[in-house]
């Protein structure tokens, strides 16, 4: 894992990169949006770019998909130099933005055939490809209906189907599930997994940390125009000490006794709850339970929290999770008795 670069080393050859960047920069006036971005995204994988609103995620997608030019740095997409051969890059990629490219005034089938025309497919080939993709995305029954009548999930599926008309090797999905209900979001996740199984590389930006955790082989967190950290979800979760055990009591006297014994634990007097740092291992849980038994203190509820991407996001960006109205708790490091039975005596 790396805090700024690709994180490959140790003398082993890196997997073939579908996308690679070195020192990518972009500014608008005196505002620096990207300040030296290094990425290495292997072919046939899902890469997720996370960051607060305004972090530069969409700008990164726009540069790599040739919609805007970088101010500095180098990038290769599908084996082509982004600056020297943008047309070859365009021929190898597909882009689905935050806002649907679907034309609501025409039918789903007509949207597909329009994309086939733009890709210079013959009429017969265009109809074949359109029919196959409409079937693949479960849109055949709605194909003759105006796209304006489609649900949000259907429009998103049609949008991706249109992107696939040109058979791209790399697809950029810029917040593809924003605004979708949970069922539609899970359907979209399955579509993305199937694309990768077929050898497509997916570059995903998302506001949903669960989505990145579910889908991405590698994740990068963008903050202040720089990559704060990147790696697998598990590597990123190990960056911070957010694991803890939460004990909740209904008996105020039991809560006070436990709080006094665990003086450095985080307290929530209103909820009668204590928070104890823990890695969630069986050994640590047994130690806590043994200590409670030895001290003759009964907790009504014990929950284990291991660091998740919400914690990582908060720790690396200093902002609240995009999917939560409250900040994830990253507790201080109180101590609890190593040998609870001895301590209780």
UniProtKB/TrEMBL annotation:
Cell location: Cell membrane
Membrane topology value: Peripheral membrane protein
Top-level taxonomic group: Bacteria
Primary location group: membrane
Keywords: Antibiotic resistance, ATP-binding, Cell membrane, Membrane, Nucleotide-binding, Translocase, Transport
Keyword Ribosomal protein carried by entry: no
Residue ranges that the Swiss-Prot or TrEMBL entry lists as coiled coil: none
GO molecular function, one term: ATP binding
Region described as Disordered: spans on this chain: 314-345
Domain ABC transporter: 19-249
Pfam hit, one: ABC_tran
Family: Belongs to the ABC transporter superfamily. Drug exporter-1 (DrugE1) (TC 3.A.1.105) family.
The protein's name: ATP-binding cassette domain-containing protein
């Amino acid at each position: 894992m790396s805090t700024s670069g690709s994180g490959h080393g140790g003398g082993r050859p890196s997997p073939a990169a579908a996308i690679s960047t070195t020192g990518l920069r972009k500014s608008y006036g005196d505002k620096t949006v990207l300040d030296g971005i290094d990425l290495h995204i292997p072919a046939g994988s899902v890469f997720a770019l996370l960051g607060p609103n305004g972090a530069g995620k969409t700008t990164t997608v726009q540069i790599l998909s040739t919609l805007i030019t970088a101010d500095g740095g180098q990038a290769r997409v599908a084996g082509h130099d982004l600056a020297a051969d943008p047309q070859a890059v365009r021929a190898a990629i597909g882009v689905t933005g935050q806002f649907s490219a679907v034309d609501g005034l025409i039918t789903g089938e007509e949207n597909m055939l329009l994309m086939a025309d733009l890709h210079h497919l013959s009429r017969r080939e265009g109809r074949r490809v359109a029919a196959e993709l409409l079937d693949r995305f479960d849109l055949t029954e709605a194909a003759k209906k105006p796209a304006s009548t489609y649900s949000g999930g259907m429009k998103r599926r049609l949008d991706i189907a249109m992107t696939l008309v040109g058979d791209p090797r790399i697809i950029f999905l810029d917040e593809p599930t924003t605004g979708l209900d949970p069922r539609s979001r899970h359907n979209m996740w399955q579509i993305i997994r199937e694309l990768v199984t077929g050898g497509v590389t997916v570059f995903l930006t998302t506001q949903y940390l669960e989505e990145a955790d579910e889908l991405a082989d590698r994740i990068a967190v963008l903050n202040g125009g720089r990559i704060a950290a990147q790696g697998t979800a598990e590597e990123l979760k190990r960056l911070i000490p957010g694991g803890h055990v939460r004990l909740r009591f209904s008996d105020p006297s039991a809560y006070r006794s436990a709080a006094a014994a665990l003086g450095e634990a985080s307290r929530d007097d209103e909820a009668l709850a204590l928070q104890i740092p823990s890695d969630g291992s069986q050994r640590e849980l047994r130690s806590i339970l043994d200590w409670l038994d030895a001290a003759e203190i009964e907790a009504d509820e014990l929950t284990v929290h291991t660091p998740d991407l919400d914690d990582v996001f908060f720790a690396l960006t200093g902002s609240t999770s995009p999917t939560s109205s409250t900040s994830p708790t990253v507790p201080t490091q109180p101590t609890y008795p190593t040998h609870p039975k001895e301590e209780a005596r």
